[in-house]
């Protein structure tokens, strides 16, 4: 009897809450769109399109054609409004913390850590961001260029020398991972020992958060625990050395994070979670951007000739084996146009979710409090209003300034990518080393690109290489 009364009571509460929310949303003008099936909404269609890297063609574009640039749907149980176009990007990105907050799936938060910058707001977000960006100031970047050249030289000696074919994607992934550890953090860990463990964590970040032994999520949690153990050991060793006067705070990010923890500005957990988050944020995105830059160059020989000329000119002013400087990198203007055009067409990140913290009125529709907002790169990057003849690869369109919030591979507003400068440096310096030292060609010019959870070339983008004569 007691169980029956409790059940009836709960049912009444659910009906009351449902009716109330229905009445509230009935009164306002919601964006057009279909919410799909109960609870799961259009999640299956979304995941299917994502897996085959057809999110724009199969999910966003048909709905934009039917409902307009702003439409509603339901994804992973949440009512969601997808927004496209520079005005919407500006509105939602710049109103972070005021009208919206970033909103990541449970599995991503569990695996990156609740203390990572992506979960922070207000003062604690500002504090962590300023530590990260302090290493990427002009003086930080100037010091980083020769270090990066060293890491690339070593990687090429070990993995490219005397080889006729390499997987460009796997090689750049390993290399960008190494660069983050060696050049950004200055952590003394052999990168190869942790690379595979990080890969296992990544496999779980968008999987259902079910922690039973055979799931991707459980494997990822175990891998995350392994990383945590290594990092805690490194943090304590560094802390002891710094407190004992054996080591001083230097310009590397790991040292700055540990110093901030000694001063009590951040906790040990915050150091661990942010190292994990930054390694992820940095290496998969950058390696995909580099790989796709080479694919675009292979398919556009006229652009490659221009780019090669730029690098040959820089190399002609260097002695054999002399490292690049930040001044040299600044001269790589056309290469940066090529890289930006590549990221416009093939963005490493398709978009990002926010959650509304109040009812929002935007362009005549209301997005109720608690709904998700998904901004997407494709919807703006492929719009001819901002980029005429949008599907054509045309790097020189970036010779002139682009409208604000129309080119958003790095996001915008308070959550603009904190590692933007590092990514730029990494792409430009690596392109220089490859094109000045090797003749190269794609093994599979039409290799399909898949997504899980980030985009990747399905065969690892093998390239044939042969060293150039000096
Ligand atoms: C081509 C390479 C990269 C791309 C395309 C990229 C893209 C992005 C995007 C779109 C966001 C915003 C996400 C949002 O609005 O929710 C973001 C944030 C972030 N990125 Fe990057 N990223 C790249 C490289 C890097 C690198 C090298 C680092 C490491 C230093 C990094 C660190 C971060 C961090 C810490 C954030 C969070 C910022 C915050 O919440 O305040 N990223 N990135």
Structure summarized in a few sentences:
The protein has 470 residues and is of the alpha+beta class. It has 17 helices and twelve strands.
Mean pLDDT: 92
The name of the CATH architecture of the domain at 114-280 and 410-470 is: Orthogonal Bundle
Order of helices and strands: HHHEEHEHHHEHHHHHHHHEEEEHHEEEE
Tell the overall outline: globular
Q: What low-confidence regions span 5 or more consecutive residues with pLDDT below 50?
A: none
Beta-strand percentage range: 5-15%
Major beta sheet, strand line-up? 1-2-8-5-3
What does this entry look like structurally?
Its EC number is 1.14.99.37. Belongs to the cytochrome P450 family. It is a single-pass membrane protein. One of its GO terms (molecular function) is iron ion binding. One of its GO terms (cellular component) is membrane. With 470 residues, the protein is of the alpha+beta class. It has a domain at 114-280 and 410-470: Cytochrome P450 (Cytochrome p450, Orthogonal Bundle). The chain is 55% helix and 11% strand. The chain contains 17 helices and twelve strands. It has helices spanning 2-27, 43-51, 55-67, 86-94, 106-112, 122-134, 138-159, 168-185, 191-204, 216-243, 253-262, 268-299, 301-316, 326-330, 333-345, 377-381, 420-437; strands spanning 71-75, 78-83, 100-102, 165-167, 351-356, 360-362, 365-367, 372-376, 438-442, 449-451, 455-457, 462-467. The strands form four sheets. Strands 1-2-8-5-3 form a five-stranded mixed β-sheet, sandwiched between helices. A three-stranded antiparallel β-sheet has the order 4-12-9. β6 (360-362) and β7 (365-367) form a beta hairpin. α9 packs across α10 (216-243), α12 (268-299) packs across α17 and α13 runs antiparallel to α15 (333-345). The model has no long low-confidence stretch (mean pLDDT 92). Bound molecules: protoporphyrin IX containing FE. The site of protoporphyrin IX containing FE has 24 residues, from α6, α12 and α17.
């Amino acid at each position: 009897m007691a169980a029956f009364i409790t059940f009836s009571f709960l049912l009444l509460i659910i009906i009351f809450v449902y009716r109330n929310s229905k009445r509230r949303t009935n009164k306002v003008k919601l964006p057009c769109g279909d919410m799909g099936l109960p609870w799961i909404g259009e999640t299956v269609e979304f995941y299917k399109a994502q897996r085959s890297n057809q999110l724009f063609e199969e999910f966003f574009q048909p709905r934009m054609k039917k409902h307009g640039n702003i439409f509603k749907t339901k994804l992973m149980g949440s009512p969601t409004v997808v927004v496209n176009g520079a005005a919407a990007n500006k509105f939602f990105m710049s109103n972070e913390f005021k009208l919206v907050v970033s909103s990541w799936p449970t599995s991503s938060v569990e695996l990156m850590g609740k203390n990572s910058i992506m979960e922070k707001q207000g003062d604690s977000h500002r504090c962590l961001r300023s530590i990260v960006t302090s290493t990427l100031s002009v003086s930080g970047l100037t010091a980083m260029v020769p270090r990066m050249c060293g890491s690339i030289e070593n990687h090429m000696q070990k993995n490219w020398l005397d080889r006729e074919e390499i997987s460009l994607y796997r090689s750049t992934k390993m290399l960008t991972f190494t660069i983050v550890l060696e050049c950004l953090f200055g952590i003394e860990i052999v990168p190869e020992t942790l690379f595979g463990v990080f890969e296992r964590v990544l496999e779980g970040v968008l999987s259902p958060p079910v922690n039973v032994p055979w799931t991707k999520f459980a494997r990822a949690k175990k891998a995350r625990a392994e990383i945590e153990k290594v990092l805690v050991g490194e943090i304590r060793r560094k802390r002891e050395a710094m407190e004992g006067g054996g080591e001083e705070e230097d310009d590397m990010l790991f040292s700055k994070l540990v110093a901030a923890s000694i001063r009590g500005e951040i906790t040990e957990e915050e150091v661990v979670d942010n190292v994990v988050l930054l390694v992820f944020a940095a290496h998969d995105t950058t390696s995909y951007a580099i790989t796709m830059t080479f694919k675009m160059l292979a398919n556009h020989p006229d652009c490659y000739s221009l780019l090669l000329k730029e690098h040959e000119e820089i190399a002609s002013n260097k002695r054999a084996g002399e490292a690049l400087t930040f001044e040299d990198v600044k001269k790589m203007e056309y290469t940066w146009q090529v890289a930006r055009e590549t990221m416009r067409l093939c963005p490493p990140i398709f978009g990002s979710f926010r959650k509304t913290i109040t009812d929002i009125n935007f362009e005549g529709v209301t997005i109720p409090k608690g709904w998700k907002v998904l901004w997407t790169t494709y919807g703006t990057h492929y719009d001819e209003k901002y980029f005429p003849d949008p599907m054509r690869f045309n790097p020189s369109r970036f010779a002139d300034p682009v409208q604000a919030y129309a080119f958003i591979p790095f996001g915008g507003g308070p959550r603009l990518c904190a590692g933007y400068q590092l990514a730029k440096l990494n792409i430009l310096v690596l392109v220089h080393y490859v094109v000045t030292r090797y003749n190269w060609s794609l093994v599979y010019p039409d290799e399909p690109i898949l997504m899980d959870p980030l985009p990747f070339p399905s065969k690892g983008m093998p390239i044939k290489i042969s060293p150039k004569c000096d």
